[in-house]
Design brief:
Elements lengths: L18 H12 L4 H4 L3 E5 L1 E6 L5 E6 L7 E4 L1 H11 L14 E5 L5 H16 L2 H7 L4 H7 L8 E2 L8 E2 H10 L19 H11 L6 H5 L3 H16 L2 H4 L20 E2 L6 E2 L5 H9 L7 H5 L9 H22 L4 H6 L1 H17 L6
Helix pairs in contact: 1-3, 7-8, 10-14, 12-16, 14-16
C-alpha cells in the first residue's frame, strides 16, 4: 500500500469506516454477483508481469514486486480491504463468488517520480466521485444550511473521505422518493430509481437550477424527512412479520433483528433502531408518504404534510410491513428485488392513501 496515497481507515473493531467503504462491504454481502459491475477494480503496479500456459488450458500469471516504494496496490485499497474483510467473515454467504477487475501495469525500471504522479492521477480520476465534485461546486450548500445544528447534522458525508455515516447520495435518494413533481400519484412510482445513485444525483443537479424546483421545496423540511426515515426503520423492524427475515445469505446473524444488527443509531430521530432494514424494504414505505404531501401547498411552491407523519406511520406500519413481506416472499427472499419492482410501492402507497381518505384529509 506504500504507493497508494489513499489509505483506508479502520474502526476499533478493525472494520472499514466511511460511507464508501461500507457501501462496498454491503454489496459484497448482499449482492456479490453484481460486485464486478459496481466496482472499478484493483490497480497494481509491478516491475514485470509474465504469463505461461499450464495444464488443462489453465494459465499462470506471475507478477514481480521488487520495491515497495514503486510496486504494489496503487488504487483500489478500499476494495481490497473490503474483500478481505468479507472473505474472512464467518457469517458471509455460503455461496459467495464475487469477481473484481484487476488492472496490472508493468512499470519496469520507471522513475519513482513517474510512479508517484501515476498513483496520484489514478486516485484523482477514479476516486473523486460526482458527489465530491458537486460538493466542491457548492451544490449541497442549501442542504448543509438546512441541517446545521440539528440532530445528525455531522453524520452526512458530502464527499469521499468524510467521516459521516450517511452518504449525501442516500439523502438525495430519500428526497427523490418523495418527489411528487416526478412521481405525483399512485400511477407512477419511484422503483425506477432504486440502485440508481447517479440518476438521482443528476436529477437533483438539474432540478435545483429550475424555478419550479422540487428539491428546493423539500430542503427546508429535510430534517423531518430524515427523522421519518429513521422512524420507519425503527417501527418496521419491530414488526414480528419482518424481524426474522434474512437480509443476507450469511451462515449466522443474517436476519433483520439478529443480535449484531440491533442497537443501531438513529442518527436523526435519536435513540436506537433494533434491527437492520434493507433499502429494498424501506424505500416502498418511505415513498408511500408522497400521498401525505399537500398538493395545494406544493402548487404554491411549498412542502407541507397533510397530517403528522409519525401518527400516520403508527396507523399504517403493520399493513405496510405485510405488503413488503409478501413481496419479499414473492421475490425469492431478495430485498433488493423488492426495491426494484413496482408492486411494493403501489401497495404501500395505497395503504396510506386509504388511511388519509378515511380521515377526510384528501382534497381534489
Amino acid at each position: 500500500m506504500s504507493v497508494n496515497p489513499r489509505i483506508p481507515r479502520f474502526s476499533k473493531k478493525d472494520e472499514l469506516t466511511g460511507s464508501v467503504a461500507r457501501a462496498i462491504v454491503t454489496t459484497l454481502m448482499e449482492e456479490p454477483e453484481k460486485f464486478v459491475i459496481k466496482n472499478q477494480g484493483i490497480y497494481l503496479l509491478t516491475e514485470k508481469a509474465s504469463h505461461s500456459k499450464g495444464s488443462g488450458g489453465e494459465g499462470i500469471l506471475t507478477l514481480r514486486f521488487s520495491d515497495p516504494q514503486k510496486h504494489g496496490l496503487v488504487n483500489g485499497g478500499h476494495t481490497f480491504q473490503a474483500i478481505r474483510q468479507v472473505a474472512e467473515d464467518q457469517e458471509r454467504p455460503e455461496q459467495w463468488n464475487p469477481y473484481v477487475r484487476l488492472h496490472i501495469f508493468e512499470m519496469g525500471s520507471a522513475d519513482s517520480s513517474v510512479i508517484t504522479e501515476m498513483a496520484e492521477g489514478l486516485n484523482r480520476s477514479l476516486q473523486v466521485d460526482n458527489p465530491s465534485l458537486e460538493n466542491l461546486r457548492g451544490t449541497f450548500d442549501e442542504i448543509r444550511k438546512s441541517l446545521e445544528g440539528k440532530c445528525g447534522y455531522e453524520e452526512i458525508a458530502y464527499r469521499q473521505g468524510d467521516s459521516g455515516n450517511v452518504d449525501i447520495q442516500q439523502v438525495l435518494m430519500y428526497m427523490s422518493l418523495l418527489n411528487i413533481k416526478k412521481f405525483p400519484d399512485r400511477k407512477i412510482h419511484p422503483h425506477t430509481i432504486f440502485s440508481q445513485p447517479k440518476v438521482v444525483l443528476n436529477n437533483f443537479i438539474e432540478d435545483i437550477k429550475s424555478e419550479d424546483s422540487a428539491f428546493k421545496r423539500m430542503i427546508p423540511h429535510l430534517h423531518e424527512i430524515l427523522v421519518l426515515t429513521d422512524l420507519i426503520q425503527r417501527f418496521a423492524v419491530e414488526q414480528q412479520i419482518l424481524g426474522r427475515l434474512k437480509v443476507s445469505n450469511g451462515k449466522k446473524q443474517n436476519r433483520i433483528r439478529s443480535e449484531k444488527n440491533k442497537n443501531r443509531q438513529a442518527y436523526f430521530a435519536g435513540g436506537a433502531i433494533e434491527g437492520r432494514l434493507p433499502a429494498g424494504l424501506l424505500y416502498p414505505m418511505l415513498a408511500a408518504f408522497r400521498s401525505n404531501i399537500s398538493p395545494k401547498s406544493w402548487s404554491e411552491g411549498k412542502f407541507e404534510w397533510l397530517t403528522k407523519p409519525e401518527d400516520l406511520l403508527k396507523a399504517t406500519i403493520e399493513e405496510m410491513a405485510q405488503i413488503v413481506r409478501q413481496e419479499y416472499d414473492d421475490n425469492k427472499s431478495k430485498p433488493a428485488e423488492v426495491g426494484r419492482k413496482e408492486a411494493a410501492y403501489r401497495g404501500c402507497y395505497g395503504v396510506l392513501f386509504v388511511e388519509l381518505a378515511q380521515r377526510n384529509l384528501l382534497v381534489n
